[in-house]
Amino acid sequence: MRDSILIRNGRRLIAVGLAAALIAVGALLTLTGSSSVGAEEYVEKQVTETVTTWPEKSSATTLTIEGAATRSIERDGTVARFSITVLDTSVRDAVSTGNGALADVRTALQMGCNDDDSEQLCVPNDQLQTTSIRISEQFDWTEQGRVSLGFEYRNSLLARLDGVDQAGLLIDTILIAGGDHVRFDGLDFTASGRAEAERLALLDAIDDAQATADSIADHMGYEIVRVVELSPVGSLTASRTVLESAESAMADDSFEATPVFGGSESVTSRVRMVFELRPLAEVEERAADESNGN
């Protein structure tokens, strides 16, 4: 009798325990489910707030053209480049001899400065420019080793002259007056109107590019909307005229005067332009009619 009562009580306790366990599991599942739903809603909200839809950009039709134009410039100035060079056993003697040769050249270049009607040159002091003065010891290598040849004095100068008609006379005067101590390095011509010529050539290049773009756009059934980009490509000028050293021509008195022709030079400017195009109205209407089957 007692044993049967204990068995019934044990079964009752087991049933109560199982019921409590089932209730706990159900509560846990309920809490877990609600948390999962909340997380999904949060993620969905975050995605909705951060994703942005960008409008599509309309593509423009562009045309790139390079224009070029050339202007001519009359040369109106002459620049002679020469140097006085003396090699002597002492620095003092080299400098003294070189300065004496330079004084002779300067006197010859200014022979016509006191006479307006003279055919002689007139290169005043402000048209003479010293570019460098160097004194250095010169050496030679022999069987005995390095041997000093003396000291070289070199005075490099520029002589400027208005106009180009006396360019040949400028060369001859420098060579004759300087004698064996002068080295003629070259002759350049200048043009005071180069900057203005480059500016005008650039404007002509812009007109050239514009005219070409108009022709192409008209041929294709487009019109120019605006200039998107404009940039100069650069300018090209004629190279300078250089006369090599001519001391050998002065070996005797039978040489003829040096002929020099200044002439003119050209300046070429280039420009790069980018144009935005759009179809003409009638072209758009025709395309619309064709798409509609009319």
Key features of this structure:
single chain; 294 residues; alpha+beta; Translation Initiation Factor IF3; Alpha-Beta Plaits; 3 domains; 4-stranded antiparallel sheet; 3-stranded antiparallel sheet; 5 helices; 34% strand; disordered N terminus
Radius of gyration: 47 Å
Low-pLDDT parts are 1-7, 27-57, 239-252
Q: What characterizes the major β-sheet?
A: 4 strands, antiparallel
In the CATH hierarchy, what is the architecture of the largest domain at level 2?
Answer: 2-Layer Sandwich
The averaged pLDDT comes out at 78
CATH topology descriptor of the largest domain: Translation Initiation Factor IF3
Q: Hey, roughly how much beta strand do the residues contain? A: 25-35%
Number of helices: 5
Structural class: alpha+beta
Q: Name the helicity range.
A: 40-55%
Extended strand count: 7
Number of domains: 3
Account of the 3D structure:
- There is one protein chain.
- The chain has 294 residues and is of the alpha+beta class.
- It has three domains: 1-53; 59-74 and 193-294, Translation Initiation Factor IF3; 77-190, Alpha-Beta Plaits (2-Layer Sandwich).
- The chain has helices spanning 2-50, 91-109, 167-178, 194-220, 281-292, and strands at 61-74, 77-88, 128-142, 145-162, 182-190, 222-237, 264-279.
- The strands form two sheets. It has a four-stranded antiparallel sheet with strand order 3-4-2-5.
